[in-house]
Amino acid sequence: MASYLTPNFLLSDINQLLRTSEKGVEAGYGDILSKSQFRDTYRTGTFNPTFGNTRYYYDYDFNDAGKYHGASVYGETTGFGTRTGSPEGYRFSSEDNAYEAYVKAETGQSFEDYFSKSNLGTQTANIFDPQSLAEGILRARGDEPSSQAGVGLTAFTPEMFKKLRTEYYQPEIEQKKGSLVDRLIEKQKIAKSRGAGIAGYGGRGRAQQALSEQFETGVKDIFSDIQTKKAAGLQDIYDVLSQYEEI
Q: How far apart are CA 44 and CA 23, in angstroms?
């Protein structure tokens, strides 16, 4: 993930690429088990009665899913019909119902709410490593990461994000402010040497005010230049980001 150097709006754009899709969950890359992972992990077996629908049993704590059924209970997992293994657990009439109950127990939300709110977790990736970031994006979309996923992609660098912060330019700002003061003092000296100085208290006051206004204007120009550089730095980041959006 991006560091503290990254502005929130930019971090949101990067995380959007890493936000797990429903396909990503189905492929097993979400914060919860995919349907197949859940089945393979918790299903204890099935019971196919002579009459009626197949019953599916899961050894998972669904909280409010009903009664836990044991293999020795007649009519549940024994008796007439065909069964696989010795299934025990909570009984469901379909695998979909079981998975929906699992999602609710795991997330505290209904199946529909969990998947409709795009609240499916975010993939972890190192944004300064093109391979890691590319793999995270692929996982988020439910695609198998490739060992060549990051080939040809430009890497983000900490320097890129530092360039968005005013303090990065502080040495330059201080140097330019110092040069500005030196130039103004030199101009004042030249004016005096040419007899252009204004005598008297009122004249000195006007001269000081003019000097102050020139300094303020010069400082504004310095910060305007810094803002231009920060904007260029942000554009550089979005140029790199666009490469990953094309994956």
A: 26
> Rounded to two decimals, what is the model's pTM?
0.64
Spell out the long-range contacts of 235-238 with Cβ–Cβ below 8 A and sequence spacing 24 or more. 236/160, 236/163, 237/10, 237/156, 237/160, 237/161, 237/164
For the chain, the DSSP string reads ---TTS-HHHHHHHHHHHBPPHHHHHTT-SSS--HHHHHHHHEEEEEE-SSS--EEEE-S--SSS--EE-TTSBTTTBSSSEESS---EEEESSHHHHHHHHHHHHHSS-HHHHHHTT-S-B----TT-HHHHHHHHHHHTTPPP-TTTTTTPPPP-HHHHHTTSGGGGHHHHHHHHHHHHHHHHHHHHHHHHTT----HHHHHHHHHHHHHHHHHHHHHHHHHHHHHHHHHHHHHHHHHHHHHHT-
What does each of the 247 residues of the chain score in pLDDT, given as a tens digit? 445 566 788 888 888 899 888 888 888 888 889 899 999 999 988 888 777 788 899 999 887 667 788 766 655 555 445 555 567 889 899 999 999 999 999 988 888 888 876 678 889 999 999 999 999 999 999 898 888 888 999 999 999 999 999 999 999 999 998 888 888 887 777 666 655 555 544 455 566 677 778 888 888 899 999 999 999 999 999 999 999 988 7
d(CA 25, CA 23): 5
Q: DSSP secondary structure string, 141-161?
A: TTPPP-TTTTTTPPPP-HHHH
